[in-house]
Amino acid sequence: MPAVSTARLEARISPELQQLLKRAAEIEGRTLTDFVVSAVQEAAQKTIEQADVIRLSLQDQQRFAEALLAPPSPSPALKRAMARHDKLLRTEE
């Protein structure tokens, strides 16, 4: 079985915070390391997900809604692309 590569993370915390973390880990029946790694991973994922959310100004929201409700007519290039797509689908059947 191949060895799993790991990295080390160290942090200096107050004794009070250490006791708090130990207590929380015990409540969940986990080791302190497992509890901290899991909590840090969840926080990192949440932060990244929040950063990945598209934020639009009120004016941009209005433009987006208008484009959905009344889309522009297809350009000649889009019409050609749709025709090629339809042709490809017909040949695969």
From TrEMBL:
Pfam families registered for this protein in UniProt: TacA1 (PF08681)
Protein keywords = Toxin-antitoxin system
Q: Where is this region: Disordered?
A: 70-93
Q: Where along the chain is composition biased (Basic and acidic residues)?
A: 83-93
Superkingdom, natural source: Bacteria
Q: Which InterPro entries match?
A: Ribbon_hlx_hlx, TacA_1-like
Asked whether the keyword Electron transport is assigned, the reply is no
The Swiss-Prot or TrEMBL record describes its family as follows: Belongs to the TacA antitoxin family.
Q: Supply the NCBIfam families for this chain.
A: YlcI_YnfO_N
Protein's name in the database:
Uncharacterized protein (DUF1778 family)
Species source reads Herbaspirillum frisingense
